[in-house]
Amino acid sequence: MTRRLRTGAREDTGPAAQLLIRGGTVIDPARGVERALDVLIDGGVVRRIAPSLRPTRGTTVLEARGCVVCPGLIDIHTHLREPGYEEKETIASGTRAAAAGGVTSLLCMPNTNPPIDNQTAVEFVVLKARNEGVVNVFPVGAITKRRAGEELSEIGELHRAGVVAITDDGDPVMNSKIMRRALEYARMFDLVVMSHCEDVNLSRGGTMNEGRVSSLLGLRGIPRQAEEVMVIRDLILAELTGGRLHVTHVSTRDSVEYIRRAKKEGVRVTCDTAPHYFSLTEDAVRGDTAADMYNTNAKMNPPLRTGHDVAALVAGIADGTIDCVASDHAPHTREEKSREFDLAPFGIIGLETMLPLCVTVLHRRHGLPLRRVVEVLTAAPARAFGLPRGTLAPGLPADVTVFDPRCEFVVGPFVSRSQNSPFIGWKLFGKVIGTVCNGRIVYQGR
């Protein structure tokens, strides 16, 4: 007999259990597949993908009629906060939130306390994720010791410990010589250097995009040039060194254009943006009513920009200039986000809204094909960071996301330990129906 899981049910089927995902449209951009197929999983790996597969006795069946079945989503930019800030998020709670958002693999940033700048810190994250996490966690190491921007971390040691990239995310590497050396040393290990592009001499003290809205609200602005001058610098350094550069959370029109030109000239650069940068503008800080004004859930770094920037980001995703979409999941406590706007921390959560915002804004509003939406969340991040994920090829680990692109739902509350999101109460499409990681059902939607 087969067992059918009811909507809202959760069940862990051990790695050896057999699972059949039946009746959905498989979209696997890495292999150019987009058609109605069934997916058979056994022993934690994908065994067969074919039409009208029949379950055998004891097989768990996940009905996916009307849904998209795709490789498990890969989020290349998350902050799990552990160690040091467990009141905001933990590896356990963050990976559960990831599963609820259809994410089966994530890269966790090193701005923890202590930071992930040595082998012991990497091993802590790996062990915690293995024991308490429900999805794959790939640690990212710090470029500099203590993320202070003054002395390179032991990059070879970090590589041996298992990091897939290095970054000082949350802070830029202001010293150009150190950034050059980081690209050179990382190249020896074929590691990606993720750049948080911000000139702090231009951005210091700013709280939102510099422009019309910041003037109206009397807030000190962050000019777009604070991002753009560092994008230019790092593109030049990547060309000089031949290193693998990844520019993260791109937010401005000119940043997209600089990266587009660099790619054409052969620079080894990839980049991502986050859903909030193509779903919101600086007006979100002002809100629709007096009660919504100075909305700290719209405070992030880089800040929300203008409608012209939003249009450029969507175009960059459409033409492949922007390789990936990442959540930049940055949880904070309610108390922190309840402070005055100037004092509240930057950042919002995003693991559970990343896919729905992509479906709603990129696909339904701007007309990008679903295959492209799936690609920027699966195959593209796998390529950019050399991860053995992002496809449903038989024989590979069975990481699968099932979502309904036509199902509308109201955002919130969240599985994440924090609730700092500007999208609470929004109606979005693209509800996650099921998440399978290494052959186990780790989330099934309600």
List the helices and strands and how they pair.
Layout: E1 3-4, E2 18-22, E3 25-28, E4 33-36, E5 38-42, E6 45-50, E7 60-63, E8 68-71, E9 73-78, H1 91-100, E10 103-108, H2 119-132, E11 136-139, H3 155-161, E12 165-166, H4 176-188, E13 192-195, H5 200-203, E14 208-209, H6 212-217, E15 221-222, H7 225-241, E16 244-247, H8 253-264, E17 269-273, H9 275-279, H10 283-286, H11 307-319, E18 324-325, H12 334-337, H13 354-365, H14 370-377, H15 379-385, E19 400-410, E20 427-437, E21 440-444
Parallel strand pairs: 1-7, 2-7, 3-8, 9-10, 10-11, 12-13, 13-16, 14-15, 16-17, 17-18
Antiparallel strand pairs: 2-5, 3-4, 5-6, 8-19, 19-20, 20-21
Question: What is the gist of this entry?
Answer:
The protein is α/β, with parallel strands linked by helices. Helices cover 30% and strands 22% of the residues.
| Structural class computed from helices and strand pairing | alpha/beta
CATH superfamily descriptor of the largest domain? Metal-dependent hydrolases
CATH architecture annotation name of the largest domain: Alpha-Beta Barrel
Helix percentage = 25-40%
- What's the alpha carbon Rg, rounded to whole Å? 21 Å
The total of helices stands at: 15
Beta-strand portion reads 15-25%
Q: What fold name goes in the CATH topology slot of the largest domain?
A: TIM Barrel
Indicate the low-confidence ranges by residue numbers: 1-16
The overall average pLDDT, rounded, is 95
Count of individual domains: 2
Overall body shape: globular
Strands of the biggest beta sheet: in what spatial order? 4-3-8-19-20-21
How far is the N terminus from the C terminus? Answer: 24 Å
Largest sheet: 6 strands, mixed
The tally of strands reads 21
CATH class of the largest domain: Alpha Beta
